[in-house]
Write a structure and sequence with these properties.
This protein has 494 residues and is mostly helical. 72% of the residues lie in helices and 2% in strands. The protein is built from 15 helices and 4 strands. The chain has a two-stranded antiparallel sheet with strand order 1-2. Helix 11 runs antiparallel to helix 12 (384-412). The radius of gyration is 30 Å and the shape is globular. The N and C termini lie far apart (61 Å).
Length: 494
């Protein structure tokens, strides 16, 4: 009971066994112990949640660097392949444009067959295990070709087999790798990151171009002694046997499986379909989405034209010009491709500064037009350094067009059908590439003494396509709308 001062006092005869004194000597109720235990439990729970949140924060923050390393792994190997593949056919085997065009058809043709299926698989499968599997599979063809060359058995059929194998794996790799960046940026936004999708795509593009340049530089030392200029010390590098470079290509692309360990598991989309017709139904639904969206089908049509006119020239015409006009070998292919991708790298770095570009379509089409017209200078058979300057300008335009086209498609596509839409978009690009390679190969052989004349075909074709895009599609007049930001993400992105 309470006394006159309001303090609690035990009544006469009351049992005091359940009571205890605090440090001041005051008797306190056992109920206070329950309160203390509750407070301790709440504190422990808060600490555990904080530790888990920090751990999750670190894991999510590490995903983007891991993804960029995956990009570097794949495209370093791709850069090596860009030099070694045409070098082995044109210089080691001594074949002409038609054979090179057919080999590039073998390299890019499987994408026409398997790319849509790759998009469906990328949607239904979690990204992390899929990327690990594909990177390990990508290591096998270059290692096998390295074994063939090391034993002195290089022949044209082996190049066709290699091209078909790498093209098949690449068809499944593209939608799996390109679609996962959307998830990574989305998860980062939940923890307050200010990285936008446009910036994420730009960072991935920068990593792609930087890695390709590294692979191209290394590939240029194949079977050839290269002496550095005097201002660099005049030291020599190489020759590095081409089979060793192919083995290195296999190792470096296999490392991508290790980097994929640091990714989140990702999410698979369930479409409600099952059985043999499920993939066909998903692909048909993806086509319907693209056809019903004017931005998506316009970008797919543009990529089809790029595949025919630009990639065909890039893969066939330039290596033949390098050999027949300038009399160069793998080092010339290296310098040519390094210059191109260096231009693309420079423009991608410039774009990464901007969080949002309002007129993405206008910038894309302008870059495509300028790049297409620049190659007409090749008709004059300019000195080699001017030729490289043209290639650099072409690369600047390519960096802008690649980054902007990816941003437009990723922004316009429904998120639950992103991989399928990306596979259709890439199909436009890859379907045009084998036809363009075959066409350019035939045209180069039609002008054996002056292969640079073929530059008129891609320049004219792309100009007509771009004019059609301006007049008949919404790409030129489209405006990028910045999504509203609230809460923590808004404060972090200022």
């Amino acid at each position: 009971m309470a006394n006159q001062d309001g303090d609690w006092q035990p009544e006469e005869g009351e049992d005091l066994d359940g009571l205890e004194e605090d440090r001041t000597g005051q008797v306190k109720s056992p109920v206070s112990g329950i309160d203390s235990a509750t407070e301790a439990g709440a504190t422990l729970q808060f600490t555990a949640r904080s530790l888990f949140a920090r751990r999750t924060h670190r894991r999510v923050k590490s995903e983007l660097p891991a993804y960029l390393m995956i990009q570097c792994s794949w495209f370093t190997a791709f850069g090596l392949q860009m030099v070694l593949f045409p070098y082995l056919i044109t210089n080691r085997l001594g074949l002409d444009g038609t054979e090179l065009g057919l080999a590039n058809m073998a390299l890019s043709g499987p994408s026409v067959v398997f790319l849509l299926l790759g998009g469906v698989i990328a949607e239904r499968t979690r990204g992390k295990p899929l990327l690990m599997t594909l990177h390990l599979c990508s290591a096998l063809p270059p290692i096998a070709l390295a074994f063939v060359i090391a034993n002195g058995n290089l022949a044209y059929p082996f190049m066709l087999i290699y091209g078909f194998a790498m093209g098949t794996v690449g068809a499944f790799m593209m939608p799996a790798r390109d679609s996962i960046i959307n998830e990574i940026v989305e998860r980062r936004s939940r923890i307050g990151s200010g990285v936008t999708l446009q910036q994420g795509v730009a960072f991935a593009t920068i990593a792609q171009f930087a890695a390709q340049i590294a692979g191209l530089i290394v590939g240029g030392y194949a079977d050839k002694l290269t002496r550095m200029p005097d201002w660099m010390g005049g030291f020599s590098i190489g020759p590095i046997p081409s089979w060793e470079l192919l083995a290195f290509q296999g190792i470096i692309v296999g490392l991508g499986a290790g980097f994929a360990i640091f990714l989140g598991r990702g999410r698979g989309v369930k479409t409600g379909r099952s059985g043999l017709g499920a993939a066909v139904g998903d692909i048909k639904e993806g086509f319907q989405v693209v056809l019903e969206n004017s931005k998506l089908w316009a970008m797919t049509a543009l990529m089809f034209g790029v595949g025919i006119f630009v990639i065909g020239s890039f893969l066939v015409v330039l290596p033949i010009i390098n050999r027949d006009i300038y009399g160069l070998s793998s080092d010339g292919i290296r310098d040519m491709f390094v210059t191109f991708w260096l231009g693309a790298f420079v423009s991608s770095v410039a774009l990464s500064v901007f969080r949002h570009i309002k007129r993405q379509g206008r910038l894309l089409l302008t870059a495509q037009l300028l790049g297409s017209l620049a190659i007409l200078i090749m008709l004059a058979k300019p000195p080699h350094w001017i030729f490289l300057a043209i290639v650099f300008a072409w690369g600047l335009a390519a960096g802008v067009s690649i980054a902007m086209s990816r941003s437009i498609v990723q922004d316009a596509a429904p998120k639950n059908q992103l991989a399928r839409v990306l596979s259709i978009y890439q199909l436009g690009f890859m379907a045009g590439a084998p036809f363009g390679a075959a066409l350019m190969g035939w045209l180069v052989d039609f002008f054996p003494e002056q292969p640079q004349r073929v530059a008129v075909v891609p320049a004219l074709g792309m100009t007509i396509l771009i004019v059609w895009m301006v007049v008949r599609t919404p790409i030129w007049n489209m405006k990028h709308v910045v999504p509203p930001q609230t809460g923590k993400f808004k404060r972090a992105s200022r």
